[in-house]
Amino acid sequence: MEVKPEEKAEIEEPEIEYVSYGGEHHLPLIMNLVDQELSEPYSIFTYRYFVYLWPQLSFLAFHKGKCVGTVVCKMGEHRNTFRGYIAMLVVIKPYRGRGIATELVTRSIRMMMESGCEEVTLEAEVTNKGALALYGRLGFIRAKRLFHYYLNGVDAFRLKLLFPPPRQVL
Amino acid sequence: MADKPVYEEASIDGQPSKLASIPASDTTVWADASPLLQAACAGLRDGELIHGDNFNLFAAMSALEIMDPKMDSGIVCTYYSIDEAIENGAAPIPISLDSTIDVCRTIDIMDHLLACEAAWHKGHSLAQTVFSCIYLLRLDRTAPHALLHSYCRIIRATCKAVVSVVSDARTHEEEDLFTLTYGLPLNGDGDDKCLSILNAVEETISRQLRACKATSSKRRLPEDLEPLQSNPNLEEGFCKALLCRLRFRKHFFHVLSCMKRPQGRGLESARKHIASCLTELESILKSADFLRSCFDESCEGDIDDKTTASGFEPIGFDAMLNSRLSAPTPPRAIKILSWKKAVEYFVKLLHDLDVICSYSLDPHLESLLRFVVQFQKSQPDLVARSHLQLLLVQDGKLYGRDPFFAVINKAAALPEATKNHDIQKNESFLQLGMLVMNLLKILCTNAAWQRRKLGKFLQDWRVIYVQLELAFRNEYGEVSSSSNDENTCMKIFQHILLWVEEQTFWIAFRFLILGFELELYSTGEYCMVYWYLYAVLIKLAEKTHLMMAVSHDTAKRKGKKKKDSPKDLARESRIPPAVLFLQCYICLAEGLTMMLAALRNEIPVFHGPSPFNTEHEKFVQHFELLQRACIPDHVSYLSYKESTTHARFSTLAMYNYFKDAQRIAKEVKSSFSNDPERLAELRKLEQVAEHNSVAQNVICRLGALDPSLKVSFEFSHHPFFATVVVKRS
Fold this sequence. Notes:
Number of strands of chain A: 7
Number of domains of chain B: 3
Structural class of chain B: mainly alpha
Largest interface: A-B, 36 and 47 residues
CATH architecture of the domain at 16-122 in chain A: 3-Layer(aba) Sandwich
Order of helices and strands of chain B: HHHHHHHHHHHHEEEHHHHHHHHHHHHEE
Protein name (chain B): N-alpha-acetyltransferase 35, NatC auxiliary subunit
Structural class of chain A: alpha+beta
Helix content of chain A: 25-40%
Number of strands of chain B: 5
Largest sheet of chain B: 3 strands, antiparallel
Domain NAA35-like N-terminal (chain B): 47-186
Domain NAA35-like TPR repeats (chain B): 356-724
Distance between the termini of chain B: 80 Å
Strand order of the largest sheet of chain A: 1-2-3-4-5-7-6
Radius of gyration of chain A: 17 Å
Radius of gyration of chain B: 33 Å
Oligomer: heterodimer
Keywords (chain B): Cytoplasm
Strand content of chain B: under 5%
Subcellular location (chain B): Cytoplasm
Distance between the termini of chain A: 61 Å
């Protein structure tokens, strides 16, 4: 049977391997994925900024040795809150709709939570229904609407996830 | 210093390269840096970075890759400079030696400029739009071409006027790009005479039009007029096409000038010019058929995408020439609006401006606020909104005419005499005046920006209330005075305190409902939003009712009647229609809250849990600004849970709030027979109430039993009260 490129790749769930950013050898994989899918002009320094300072927050998804998805994040102090930020999230087309993006983001958010973040934030196009549904299921709210945020005139939502206060250990 | 470009000879393969370049001078020399760069490439290993005092990883993110077209704004596309472009014939004068083609191309330039102007208004930089026109960048050289020259002049003067209006409004919304004009030649000597220059050209073409009409009817010509162009069959069509374009520019410039006049003195004249603009735009649209059929060759591609009526590409434009001037944006190619869409934009802009010019400058703040809210429903763009803001707030007064204390005085139902009271010099009252002024400015911004500002604004209104209350208690706390002036002061305080509360709840209400318009709430959050809306509306209705009672007292005291007739007493005890209107809202909010709560409590899959947080965190986030300002008091996540935790289908069946809403809406319609907007809204509220009432009955009867029932929420009838839709999946 002929498989067209648009059709979903046939995979079994356990076949996706999730790996934490491990070094410079992962950088070209991340860059290629992001360059392919997103239109923002990022230089290599932008990637290095994220993965060098917060390697534990970036993850890659592999299927049979091929990198099919990645998430790149940072965290830091912002106006008296310790906050995580999701900078880039990409899964290549044939692998979408299988929860890979959710898994990548979940791992990163968990790491942020364990590192003491109080909240997590990101921007997404108001037309990006997939992203909005994904983050909505994880507990993000649409905190603000940013008018004409993108150069093509599209608005953005600022999405925010507030963690519950840490449980008191008795 | 050499004034001609020097052509570099050397290159890698020995072939002379023909790149024009910056000439070397007495103190500068060109040197080949290739070997240095080669060596540098090998100087760092993968992953290494030069560290400096001001150069770390974060700073490195701003690095540009030279020659990357996405990042390098200095990258040369066709011409290095405007002069080079002109020298290479990119903007010829005349455009063509064939007068027919010259006229045709001139019209193309006019059309493309209109499309550029619309693209600029919509949010792109001036440099990449209107000032991508080489003729405009070197306007003086167009002097021999009267038509082009006069048109460019008025464009320049118009852009300057529009920049001035938007700058003065100073809303600093997201689209700061609009007022960026550095390096652009916006100020021209003699641009104040642009109208007379344009009029002269218009007059000439009018005469030519009369002349060619006289020729066609075979009447003798009194003058010996030179025709516009060489093809007598096309003369009339070209004259008409040009005239409507010139007249549109003339009238549009007049609109801007009239609207600029202080205290709204020019609004009536502006309306006349707006009407003329719209007429000319219609003629411009009609001219497209003629312009497309002028020549035998037809243009390629979809005519609807073109930026000119004729469909041909305009001569004399290069958006990349200004790329270094249009920083900080990266050199992204922007899409200029199509000519058709540009005309549509201007039609809408003119209609929005007409609404502003028709406004009666009502001194009653409440009416003004409703006018602004209504105006915003048509989603006017930045230029229209800036004009509205400048009309409302000038020289620190309402309409440049009414001091804000007087406005507040009237809004707070105080007697006319108190508007000049000395108490207005009190710091708190001065600040209150500023708050009202800022409120009006905020209400003129785009919805996304507006909501953020309103949220932060709540704190300011809360603080002013506390300040005023403190001042009031300090002055009049324990002593009951009999002095007239002290009684007046007390009355001013009391009325204004009540009015401030009402305004604060109105702002909170607006903040909440804008969330629906901006699609900030997901379905799972509707329950808490309607619950909070209900809480705010209860307080708003309470304060509005009190305010009206107090206003009635003031009116009575002014009135001539000494005794109340039975009719008056009856009228007094009835709830005022404005309050009933709010009660309709309250019933709908309550109904939706309880229905959503029941759905959530009875059907677990309706709102699944999220792995990282709970409803409590979402509540805190959505209502943080309201909670911080204690609006309303004693409202918390706990009280929300208490109100909704016991909702079930069985409890829902016991009371139908939607039926109440329906009844109130029906009853109160007659009181708003002179208010078409509120009447229209009442009809919508009735529809929502009716649909939701039915839906509630279905859910109560079948909800728990039929798992195939799907409940969804649409804003098909009303912008912020959802219509509940029940379907079988």
